[in-house]
UniProtKB/TrEMBL annotation, chains A, B:
Binds 1 Mn(2+) or Fe(2+) ion per subunit. Fe cation binds at residue 110. GO terms for cellular component: cytosol. This is Transcriptional repressor. The keyword DNA-binding applies. Belongs to the Fur family. InterPro entries: FUR, Fur_C, WH-like_DNA-bd_sf, WH_DNA-bd_sf. It comes from the Bacteria. One of its GO terms (molecular function) is zinc ion binding. Its cofactor is Mn(2+); Fe(2+); Zn(2+). Zn(2+) binds at residues 119, 122, 159, 162. Keywords: DNA-binding, Iron, Metal-binding, Repressor, Transcription, Transcription regulation, Zinc.
Length: 168, 168
DNA sequence: TAGACTATGTTATTATATAACGTTTTTTAT
DNA sequence: ATAAAAAACGTTATATAATAACATAGTCTA
């Protein structure tokens, strides 16, 4: 296994000040919502913060449980699904189809293509930009006469940290 | 919109003798199972045939309904899920994560990477080989230190036929 | 301040998938 | 041939994910 310079490692896989991930995500989201004149209500903000508790995608019902643990109140599924819908619509989170789960978007507020590297051991999902992938995908779709409207690229494997563990 | 030479169109998007798709899939599957000494039982064969009725991914419960319509007997979910599990395991079908649905594999019996072009109008899903995509994906994963174990590339858009309709 | 709109609450239900256990059929070893 | 084991399928119940439909509360605006 060749060494991977830490600069190329996705943030999710690197040691970092995660508290600032969370705070940054919230303040950026607040700005985006303000600019769009839509409301980041307390519930939506709370769901966003919970999604950002880690770099691991979380299911809707897990979020319900987390809300209950934080709040004593237990919201019903539609409540959390509506918050997720809002966050998806304004591109503050992504949905990981292969996991039925949701994760914070590190480059929020606008449409962009990306792919996810998902670790089957620790559950981390690292979002990466498709600068290299995207042209190939677009060329493939064009060749087949398809007009792309959305795409989902989810790569499951083992992250650097879990590979080290597995080797040991 | 530029004309797309019909040679580059995925089979699913071209006029073709679909009956021979179905028959070919069944006979190939039978050969593969024989070679592997596993059993393509009547139920498994029937589910495979149903999955191949079209080039559109079908949900498990749709398959249950189709079985009931064909047979008068109505199987319970575990029955059809077990058949699907077998067909997945031996790489005779694929699961489309973004649709919770299953589709016949045109290149069955062995592991291979691919991507799907899925039409949001007619539901067709065309499986394409990732000859061009795959190196980019592998390079991306390697750069991030990930060891790939599986991947899912699902591109949603509008197929050539539905684009023509939409233009009209 | 009435009306419209937005957000959330509430109840019920639909859709997808699996656990656990029982029965039947097939295979294998003797 | 036949008992033991394994594989396939049946059956019941339940887990998990998502949404429909309607009620209530809060907010904005004319």
């Amino acid at each position: 296994m060749s060494a991977t310079p830490s600069e190329t490692l996705p943030l999710a896989c690197r040691r970092h000040d995660h508290q600032s991930c969370i705070e940054g995500a919230i303040t950026t989201a607040a700005k985006i919502c303000q600019a769009k004149a839509v409301k980041l209500t307390p519930l939506r903000r709370q769901v966003l913060a919970l999604v950002w508790q880690s770099h691991k995608p979380l299911g809707a019902y897990t979020l319900i449980d987390m809300l209950a643990a934080a709040d004593t109140r237990r919201v019903a599924p539609p409540t959390v699904y509506r918050a997720l819908e809002f966050l998806l619509e304004h591109r503050l989170i992504h949905r990981i189809d292969s996991l039925n789960a949701y994760i914070g978007c590190p480059d929020p507020g606008h449409h962009h293509h990306n792919y996810f590297l998902i670790c089957l051991d620790c559950g981390i999902a690292a979002e990466c930009p498709t600068q290299y992938l995207s042209p190939a995908i677009e060329a493939a779709a064009t060749a087949a006469g398809f007009a792309i409207s959305s795409q989902s690229v989810e790569i499951v494997g083992r992250c650097p940290a879990c590979r080290k563990h597995a080797d040991a």
